[in-house]
Amino acid sequence: MAVCVAVIAKENYPLYIRSIPTENELKFHYTVHTSLDVVDEKISAMGKALVDQRELYLGLLYPTEDYKVYGYVTNSKVKFVMVVDSSNTALRDNEIRSMFRKLHNSYTDVMCNPFYNPGDCIHSRAFDNMVTSMMMQVC
Amino acid sequence: MEGLTLSEAEQRYYCDLFSYCDTESTKKVAPNGRVLELFRAAQLPSEVVLQIMELCGATRLGYFGRSQFYIALKLVAVAQSGLPLRVESLNTVKDLPLPRFVGPKNEQELRHTALYSSDADNSTPYSGVIPPPPGRVQVKKGSVSHDAVQQRTSTDQQESTSPVVSPQQSPPTSPHTWRKHNRHPSGGNNDRPLAGPGPFWAPFSEAQPGSSATGDPIWSGHSPPPHQENWDQTTVRTVASATTANEIRRQSSSYDDPWKITDEQRQYYVNQFKTIQPDLNGFIPGSAAKEFFTKSKLPILELSHIWELSDFDKDGALTLDEFCAAFHLVVARKNGYDLPEKLPESLMPKLIDLEDTTVVPVISEVGDQSGEIGYSSSPAEAPPSKSPSMPSLNQTWPELNQSSEQWETFSERSSSSQTLTQFDSNIAPADPDTAIVHPVPIRMTPSKIHMQEMELKRTGNDLANPTSPLLVKPPDLSEENNVSSSKFVAGNTVADGYSSSDSYTSDPEQIGSTVTRQRSHSGTSPENTAPPPPPPRPHPSHSRSSSLDMNRSFTVTPGQQQAGVVAYPPAVPPRPPPSQGVGPHVHRPVDAESLIAHTSTSPQQIPEQPNFADFSQFEAFAASSVNEEEENEIETHSEVLQVEKPSDSAGSLRVSKTDGRVEDKAAASVPVNAGKGTTPLAPPPKPIRRRLKSEDELRPEVEEHTQKTGVIAAVLASQPSIPRSVGKDKKAIQASIRRNKETNTVLARLNSELQQQLKDVLEERISLEVQLEQLRPFSHL
After folding, report:
1. How far apart are CA B137 and CA B148, in angstroms?
2. CB B286 to CB A53 under 8 A?
């Protein structure tokens, strides 16, 4: 369902970014980049006192006419940003949540790999496959 | 062809090879078949072989004349040493080692190896060493016995599949490496194709100390020193040498499954494992494994992929099985095999639930291969516990019977979440064949495990007769909980499958999605393999309309149920006045906390917007829930709690982990109920959920809740009986396990039903929110 999936590290640089329509990649990269501001805003808005109860799923970050951007942040401040097509109205909130959950799980698996140094770009094939499965549904 | 200058050793070697190929004794032409066989034994890629043939002119001539043959052999040597194939290289390459061909599995060939390529100088300890051409002296020595041996070898080779002609590997390196391997038990045979080295090594080691005929004095002189120095090194050398030998043997058994681990290889891996982790039941932490495998000098990316494949339970550590799989993959990769995308079945670890010191066998739907049979012996090696977080999967059925006595300990086991959290991720990949992944909410309670095992047992034993466990269940239930049992019976009888707990019908897709959502789910594979007793009904259609009809059939539900049960969620049963009916439903969606703010306001909107057909039901539900909370909460609470007391902790654990949706619903409803006026927005989730859970069960109108309560109660009630039956009848245990699995299935279906309701409620919630904003914009956060 997603047209673009990005994993952003704590320092706000991308660990993994992939979009489906490859010709418009730059546009999605830009979108993800601008959405980071919204993510930060949401994180701070949650309140410092409620950090442990902070919902990982941030919800709709901001919609544009073509697509919507959803955000999800882990406890280690790794952010997942997903761009979905606005025309995909059947996409419900809980489905987005489930997609983020899958992302989070796959990300955890990548982390568990001792050969992966945190902060590196994610090259895991399993992670790629999972993202592909999420994105392929569009096509 | 240009003139070919051969050293004396080469000359002799080639001459012998030619005579070997010269089956027709023409002394002039070697038949193509033989030659091709020989070249195949050289273990070169086919395109290289073709290139060689072209270069030497055989393709032009159509046959292998002596000169062509010699040229070809030289080119083989060139190719094997990694140099590009050029005509010029024929004469320009100095000190080219003799071409290597996969040797036959007999001692004479080993002697051949020794004779032909003994190298006095070569003691460099690195893999893939090609010995420089043997010294003259040795060659002469070798040639004497060589002829005699050649006769034998030719005859032997007539029978062997892979025509072994010449030395298999450079003895100078191979002696110490081989000997090293001998020290490492089973000498690191890594692949079936690599199985050759093993038998070779054994005879070779005998040949080494014992062979005195020719060339050995030189060897023995050389092998000890290199042996000594190599001995200190560990895996790098071993892997390297294994790789070398394996490369030679690569083609010898390509027909076999390359991913099978032979016993020798496995033994070797086990010993390597011991060097890192002396406890075979323990596991290697990621960092240690990383160091170990980094020594193999594979690129990090590939090692990372190997890790992903082999760390089956994704716990960041390698158990023995995982380690063997990883090692096997590393060796295969070093030999040029491409890494698979998924873990081959023969490498899948037999997952054992360590924490529990019991073996939870899982049916391996993926074809049982002989490799797995080899694995089945591993429980003997490391029976009770492997890695703490390795759920057992892919174990063959025979294992079940073995471990049935171990199931007893399950009941005493305090299952930890770590154990169970692994299940989900493991099961999904473990059973790629199963399209449906049931989200069996594996909970900490032993009952759940039992249910899984029950499922497994039932599936394995009686795939064709799913009704039997069901039928077994009701009697047991009736003993423990009349209320729940009656419901259960109704719910579980296959014949009544449809009429019974519609809430239990499993929606495979939903279940599957639940599985993927919840990592903490486990035991999905058993669910997959065991078809749920009632075939999945047209679930979605039930959600609203037909479910109501179904629910009417359940009005009988006793126990916690109160007034007209009926209404199937999302539409809650018709209950008293609608005060906050929509609220709890509205907030069923997962993000309960975020919606809590709305809950207090939205309910009031409900009466004003009777747009939804279900509103009355919502209201009824809301009212009922409100009423319950206000009036009957305590009493009903106690009722339910009593029922649940036997396993309250399990229940709460289940609550907290099993079904996120249900919990969220419960969580949503609690804040709504608790604070109609001033709702604390975000009460601590877990305790609330537990309370909510019981409240859910309190609500009779919620059919599935009630039934779930019954199921849970039944399950929980049956739990204490499990340890008792432990010492008794195995069948009783299995029956109880089946029962539990049945309950599990039911709960899973319930889960899916609830999720369906959740989705429906979400829609309503969205519309309600819109209205809310319109009417009370200031309240919106």
Report:
1. 18
2. no
Helical ranges in A3-78 per DSSP H: 25-45
Confidence of residue B481 (pLDDT cuts 50, 70, 90): very low
- Selection from B312, B310, B280, B282 nearest residue B381 by Cα: B280
At residue B521's C-alpha, the angle toward residues B519 and B527, to 5°, is 135
Q: Exposed, middle or buried by CB within 10 Å (0-12, 13-18, 19+), for B734?
A: buried
> What is the number of other CB atoms lying within 10 angstroms of the CB of residue B417?
15
How far apart are the C-alpha atoms of B708 and B554, rounded to whole Å?
13
Q: Which of B178, B174, B39 is nearest to B113 (CA)?
A: B174
B762: chain A residues, CB-CB within 8 Å? 92-94
Residue B234, classed as helix, strand or coil, is: coil
Residues B403-455: pLDDT tens digits? 444 444 444 444 444 444 444 444 444 444 545 655 555 555 555 455 555 55
Which residue among B301, B314, B516 places its CB closest to the CB of A98?
Answer: B516
B316 lies within 8 A of chain A by CB = yes
Query: Which position has the token pair 């040029």?
Result: B336
Three-state secondary structure of B373-430: HHHHCHHHHCCCCCCCCCCCCCECHHHHHHHHHHHHHHHHCCCCHHHHHHHHHHHHHH
Within a 10 A sphere around the Cβ of B716, how many other Cβ atoms? 26
CA angle A38, A42, A46 (to 5 degrees): 170
The answer to whether A123 contacts chain B (CB < 8 Å) is yes
Amino acid (one-letter) located at B153: T
* A37 contacts: CB under 8 Å, gap ≥ 6: none
Q: For residues B107 and B205, is the Cβ–Cβ distance under 8 A?
A: no
Q: What's the Rg (C-alpha) of chain B?
A: 35
Cβ <8 Å between A124 and B314: no
CB within 8 Å of chain B, chain A residues 80-99: 92-94, 97-98
Contact indicator for B527, B745 with CB cutoff of 8 Å: yes
For residue B124, what are its two tokens? 């460099």
**Residues 6 or more apart whose Cβ sits within 8 Å of residue B540:** B507, B756
Q: How far apart are CA B355 and CA B233, in angstroms?
A: 35
Residues ≥6 apart with Cβ < 8 Å to A24: none
Are B759 and A94 in contact (CB < 8 Å)?
Answer: yes
The token pair that represents B216 in the structure block: 């050995």
Return the H-helix or E-strand segment holding B65.
Answer: strand B64-65
Element (H, E) at A19: strand A14-19
CA distance B738 to B717: 15
- Name the minimum distance, in Å, from the CA of B293 to any CA of chain A: 10
Q: Distance (Å, rounded) from C-alpha B701 to C-alpha B431?
A: 38
Provide the H-helix boundaries in B556-630. Answer: 582-586, 592-608, 615-627
Task: Answer yes or no: are the C-beta atoms of B360 and B392 closer than 8 Å.
Answer: yes
Closest chain B residue to the Cα of A57, Cα to Cα: B591
Amino acid at residue number B1: M
- Beta bridge partner(s), residue B64: B30
pLDDT tens digits along B721-777: 545 545 578 889 999 999 999 999 999 999 999 999 999 999 999 999 998 888 876
Q: What is the pTM of this model?
A: 0.34
**Residue B576: closest CA among B626, B540, B632:** B626
Q: Is the dihedral of CA B625, B644, B550, B741 positive or negative?
A: positive
Tell me, what's the ipTM? Answer: 0.81
DSSP, residue by residue, B3-20: -----HHHHHHHHHHHHH
Interchain CB contact of A126 with B (< 8 Å): yes
Find out whether B701 and B476 touch, Cβ atoms under 8 Å.
no
Chain A CB within 8 Å of residue B682 CB = yes
Give whole-number Cα distances, B639 to A124, B122, B175, B651, B670, in Å.
52, 85, 78, 15, 18
Task: Assess contact for B165 and B17: CB atoms under 8 A.
Answer: yes
